[in-house]
Amino acid sequence: MKKLLVIFAAAVMMTSLAAAQTATGTLTVSATVNGTISLVFNSDAAGVALSSGAGTNAASLDFGTVSAFGTLPAGVSRPAPTATNFTVSTPVDVLVNKANTASTNYTLTTQLSSADAANTWAANGAAFTNTTAGTATATGTYGSNVPVTLAITIPFTTASGTTISNVVNFTASAN
Amino acid sequence: MTNGWAQHPHAAKRTPPAVMTMRSEAAGTLTVSISSAPDGAPLSGTSTQRTLNFGEVSYAMASAAHNVNVVRRASGFAVATRFGLAIQDPSAHVANATVLAALAVPEVHFSFRLDGVALSTTPHIIQGNAKVGAISQHLLEIEVPNSVTEKNSRLQNAILVQVIAN
User: Fold this and answer.
1) Strand, coil or helix: B89
2) Which of A94, A134, B69, B150, by CA, is between 20 and 30 Å from B130?
3) For chain A, which ranges sit under pLDDT 50?
């Protein structure tokens, strides 16, 4: 009986030894994931190619030389002029991607960066100025190029050789 | 004879030698402490129970914000940072140790990797021969898939680090 007790004590000591040869630490990790969407411009196959910035969110589009009745650059469309002005347009692809959001579509608005007192601007038929945004689409599809037709209506009173330049801010908002 | 134990009534009394061997080794006591890495996100808490709060993270977040690196992929993004691990043996009996890590609770939405080793609730060896007395740097990466949305945007888990003397 005495021998049995000695061996039992050894077993207890073994457990104690194992505990002494290990150490533990805990690193609690936390984070909050925010949903985001991104927007980039791409050239549309049917429109004027972006002169710079394709695949980014800061691109340049040059319509080239346009006129009411003359030949237009490739990719530029022009409906029949009215009695006082003419309109040129071209499609530009807008690609909006989403991450970590349950949003199923987005609203895309456009707005001029600075005032244009002479010409009228529109995206997908929705006019916009530097003070009033226009809604190009209210149900944009994520993950695919969405063509946005950018149009400028130019009055006949504009002097030949006049350069038209402005910045159009596109804003995509998750719905 | 009971349960395999038997003893002759006149047998000499002696202590099993194995007990003596274990007693001498029992003097070694390992400790592990977790610390912020110089290029890692700041940790709070005590040395054995640290807290790493990434705060708000997103696919579009700036890389290297608060020493957190962001790797963007088509399937999602990963946030990564480094932290330090120091193993000490005040009695100087242990020279090397094995470092294991496990998650405290199962992770459904996020994937944890420590030094490239995927973590789960089962301990995995992170370092097989860590030098006792030195501070080692470890890279923690957390994968956030695109499928994580507002409904499951909160990440909360703990990494249990265990060090065993070699």
Assistant:
1) coil
2) B69
3) 1-20
Conformation bin of residue B66: beta by default, left when phi > 0, alpha when psi is -120 to 50: left
3-class DSSP state of A66 = coil
CA pair distance B155, B107, nearest whole angstrom: 9
Rounded Cα distance between A159 and B52, Å, is: 64
Using CB atoms, which residue from B30, B148, B149 is nearest to A22?
B30
* Interface subset of A 50-109, CB within 8 angstroms of B: 98-102
- 8-state DSSP, B55: E
Q: How far are the Cα atoms of A121, A149, B128 from residue A78, in angstroms, in the given order?
A: 14, 12, 72
- Does the predicted interface ipTM exceed a cut of 0.90? no
Q: What is the pTM of this model?
A: 0.75
Q: Kind of pairing, strands A22-34 and B49-58?
A: parallel
B25 shares contact with chain A (CB less than 8 Å): yes
Cα–Cα distance for residue pair B67/A55, rounded to 1 Å: 28
Q: Can you read off the two tokens belonging to residue B9?
A: 């009534």
Per this entry, what is the length of chain B?
166
User: What confidence tens digit (pLDDT) does each residue in A112-143 have?
Assistant: 999 999 999 999 999 999 999 999 999 999 99
Q: Does B9 reach chain A within 8 Å, measured CB to CB?
A: no
Element (H, E) at B25: helix B17-25
Q: Which of A57, A125, A3 is nearest to B4 (CA)?
A: A3
Q: Which of A74, A104, A89, A85 lies closest to A147, judged by CA?
A: A89
Contact, B151 vs A37, CB < 8 A? no
Nearest by Cα to A33 from B76, B138, B144: B144
Contact A23 B159 (CB under 8 A): no
User: Which structure tokens are listed for B165?
Assistant: 């003397």
* Partner A contacted by B102 (CB < 8 A): no
Residues with Cβ within 8 Å of B118's Cβ and at least 6 positions away in sequence, in order, are B111, B112, B124
Residue of A109, A125, A126, A119 lying closest to A168 (CA atoms)? A109
The angle at the Cα of B156, spanning B152 to B162, to the nearest 5 degrees, equals 145
